[in-house]
Amino acid sequence: MKKKGTALLLSLFLFVALSVPVLAARGDVYDQAGLFNGIEADQLLGKAEELSEKWERDFVVVTASDTEGKSAREYADDFYDEKGYGTTGKNSGVLFLVDMEHREMYVSTFGDMQLYITDKRLEDILDAGYEKASQGDYYGCVSNMMAGVNSCLAGGVPDGQYTYDEETGKLVKVRQITWWEGLLAAAAALLTGGGSMLVIRRKHRLKDNLYQYPFRTRGKVELTQKEDQFKNQFVTTRRIPKKTSGGSGGGSGGRTTVHTSSSGRSHGGGGRSF
To answer: Does one domain contain both 58 and 107?
Structure first.
């Protein structure tokens, strides 16, 4: 009776777990500063929704004329966090802010978007946005930056990518799994599976020769296909940051500078005045 009750509870748990839908990533536009006309707002929303569906990451566009006493970075990070972004799809995303109070455009990244949008790539994205923002074309500014992020995702994580926490000096390096390492892992999995089959077969074989367990008819070994996704390996080190003469932009091609927002979440990104 106890076993039946446990099985029933397990079945109910699995039913509920499988019935819960996986929430899709979000694509949204908040034109609080009124920078876009109706057609432009609709087109940007369409692009944001298309990219969020394509990459399973949040794409958010925000304009503001009052940042509530916050810097562009603080406002962008807080807006993303307080609206609950980064909790659907791949738990990752990007926010594009056009801050008219400080006349600054800012790109805030979260989750694995930090791996794709390195400091160097971010500069290219800001270059494309600045070209339009400096002319008062804010629709073109956001469109160009969205296209730049799309290109980053299509290009994959660059070789030698690592994150640098500007507050702690901590470095987190990404080590890509090579094809031969994946091949070795697959071979090891096959050997393990073969060894398991031999053990099972020996267990069902009697020691004497008078009788053998009819494993061909009664024994059953089910091999289920398992797909191993070899994820990147993260190696964390720490260094004492050195003072440089330049700002936060540029730098090493594979570096992503990150910081902690007021909510305690890690964000990457950067901005530029126009």
So the answer is: yes
Contacts of 260 (CB under 8 A, 6+ apart): 165, 167, 266, 267
Same domain, 139 and 55: yes
The maximal CA–CA distance of the chain, rounded, in angstroms, is 92
The CA angle 205-210-216, to the nearest 5 degrees, is: 40
**Coil, strand or helix at 218:** coil
- Closest by Cα among 79, 92, 77, 94 to 147: 94
pLDDT in single tens digits along all 274 residues of the chain: 554 554 444 444 444 444 445 579 999 999 999 999 999 999 999 999 999 999 999 999 999 999 999 999 999 999 999 999 999 999 999 999 999 999 999 999 999 999 999 999 999 999 999 999 999 999 999 999 999 999 999 999 999 999 999 999 999 986 655 555 556 655 555 665 555 555 555 555 544 454 454 545 555 544 444 333 434 444 444 444 443 333 344 445 699 999 999 999 999 999 999 9
Backbone angles phi, psi at 93, to 5 degrees: 175, -175
The H or E element containing residue 17 is: helix 2-19
Who's near 107: CB < 8 A, 6+ residues apart? Answer: 76, 94, 95, 96, 97, 117, 122, 125, 126, 145, 149, 269, 270, 271
DSSP one-letter code for 111: T
Query: What is d(CA 83, CA 229) in angstroms, rounded to the nearest whole number?
Result: 31
**How far is it, in rounded angstroms, from Cα 68 to Cα 20?**
37
Kindly report the CATH number assigned to the domain that includes residue 133. Answer: 3.10.310.50
The answer to whether residue 19 sits within a structural domain is no
